[in-house]
Amino acid sequence: MTALITRFAPSPTGNLHLGGARTALINYVISKKNSDSKFYLRIEDTDKVRSKEIYTKNIIDSLTWLGLEWDSEAQIQSSRIEKHKKIADNLLNNNFAYKCICDEKTLLTKREQIIKSKLKLKKICTECKDNKNIQELSSNYAVRLKIPIEGKTTIKDTVQGNITINNQELDDYIILRKDGSPTYMLSVVVDDHDLGINYIIRGNDHFNNSFRQIYIYKFMNWQTPNYAHIPLIHGEDGAKLSKRHGAINVMELMDQGYLPDSIINNLILLGWAPKNNNSEIIKIKEIINTFNINEISKSSSIFNYDKLNYFNNYYLRLDENLKNFKIFCKNNEILNSLYNQDEEKLLRIFQVYKKNLNFYTELFKFTNIYFERDYTIDIKDEIFGEVFNKNIKDFVQNIKNLDSWSIEFLENFISTYLKDKQIKFPIFGKPMRYILTKSYQGPSVSDILFILGKKDSLERLNQYITNI
Ligand code: GLU
Q1: DSSP string for 354-422
Q2: What confidence category does residue 44 fall into, taking pLDDT thresholds of 50, 70 and 90?
Q3: Which atom of ligand 1 is nearest to the CA of 205?
Q4: What is residue 166's three-state secondary structure?
Q5: DSSP for 87-143?
Q6: Residues 6+ apart with CB under 8 A from 281
Q7: In terms of DSSP bridges, do strands 142-145 and 97-100 run parallel, antiparallel, or are they unpaired?
Q8: Closest C-alpha among 428, 446, 305, 433 to residue 377
Q9: Is it the case that residue 52 has pLDDT exceeding 80?
Q10: Ligand 1 centroid to 9 CA: how many Å?
């Protein structure tokens, strides 16, 4: 198997979202199938206005958190501008590019004309390349790539198949702006070539670019890479996944308390399913072993939060992931303060509630009542019945002497106690739950007692007893 040299090349114009993370994941997975393969990261920051340092940090932090680590140092595109310019000069000197002085207004009129008259020929500047004077200018010009008008261009794409378009469709795009700065269309090709990238896997919103970019490879006599343009992720309403569908940025999901394993599991199954596997649970090692990019679906994939929650609930329940909960608590202000107050109690709450938890911060809904200081219940309106009131003192006396306080032990103890006393569970359970948590809803009485621990449980029960 030949070494596959892949890359993820985000522009730092926004935080890393799920779509970008999926592209990175697929590149990473492909590169891990063979020890000679590589996965590089390049930050494409040539758009000086929109690129921001905080987004670069966000992208790097998100990939690191997901465990999608890249080979070598991340490449910063802006540090290679001189090289990009050199290639533009080379293309110009070899007549593969030309100088253009069209102003914005002329270009706009031409663009409108192409659309209005449905012109087949998409060249937006038709005059400059044959004007000798313009071609002899020494400043104040943009450089356009000279793509042939005749013929067709074909891309053999792993996901999209063989696609051919007429060259008439391809505009002579700008590779160097009037101010001498290289455009993304040039820089991406030069950097990919210099890194030895032989497999470009990216969103299919770049498919049109590939037909254009391929000409730089051809003109420079560089080996063209293989391509895989993967379908974009959509929300359940069919629209491209965006903010309005919910949290879509990786760091936002991290802050809510999702785990990397869940996000990766969810993302890899968008448009792909492992063969011979009945379970949807798949971790990175198995993904690396079984993923085949040829099996990715051509149609867009639907992202669904219920599915992500399903995976996350699965992973957060695993004992091996308890350490992740502790790390999360350290980094979350609210949970950290509870953790510092009573680490064991917080872990007990997590143990009881995790079966119904979609992500860690959902635990906020449940923690307050167990951590309430100076807990007081207003029992005036609560009539708990004679049977309960007659037995509660005895019950409290009994649990005071218990030497174990595990869920199982408490469950057995309560059930035996009620059987012995011939008390029906609701007669006992309903008021107990209310006294302990001021609510008739919630987990089982044994779970509540377990969470509170012996001391707090007795305090809350005694408060009731002294009032009857
Ligand atoms: N920088 C481009 C973007 O973020 C991606 C370039 C590429 O993958 O070729 O959309």
Answers
A1: GGG-SSGGGGHHHHHHHH-TT-----TT----HHHHHHHHHHHHHHHT-S---HHHHHHHHHHHHHHHT
A2: very high
A3: 10
A4: strand
A5: HHHHHHHTTSEEEE---HHHHHHHHHHHHHTT-S---S--SGGG-HHHHT--SS-EE
A6: 265, 311, 314
A7: antiparallel
A8: 433
A9: yes
A10: 5
For residue 232, CA distances in Å to 120, 176, 228, 451 come to 28, 29, 12, 45
In the reported structure, the alpha carbon of residue 187 is separated from the centroid of ligand 1 by a whole-number distance in angstroms of 11
For residue 87, report the distance from its CA to the centre of ligand 1, in Å: 20
Residue where the block lists tokens 């114009």: 13
Structure tokens at 277: 């596997």
Q: Are 366 and 337 in contact (CB under 8 A)?
A: no
Q: What is the DSSP letter of 10?
A: -
Residue among 268, 272, 341 nearest 308 (CA): 268
Q: Enter the tokens of residue 308.
A: 């992500």
> What whole-number distance in Å separates Cα of residue 111 and Cα of residue 155?
26
How much is the pTM? 0.93
Tokens 């999702």 correspond to: 258
CB of residue 24 inside a 6 A radius of ligand 1: no
How many Å separate Cα 97 from the centre of its chain? 40
Domains of the chain: 5-68+186-234 (3.40.50.620), 88-176 (3.90.800.10), 386-465 (1.10.10.350)
| DSSP states along 252-316 | HHHHHT--HHHHHHHHHTSS---TT---S---HHHHHHH--GGG--SSPEEP-HHHHHHHHHHHH
Amino acid identity, residue 247?
A: A
**pLDDT in the model for residue 240:** 85
Q: Report whether residue 189 contacts ligand 1, using a CB cutoff of 6 Å.
A: no
Candidates 247, 200, 206; CA nearest to 228 is 200
| Structure confidence by residue, pLDDT tens digits, 163-173 | 999 999 999 99
Confidence (pLDDT) at 1 = 67
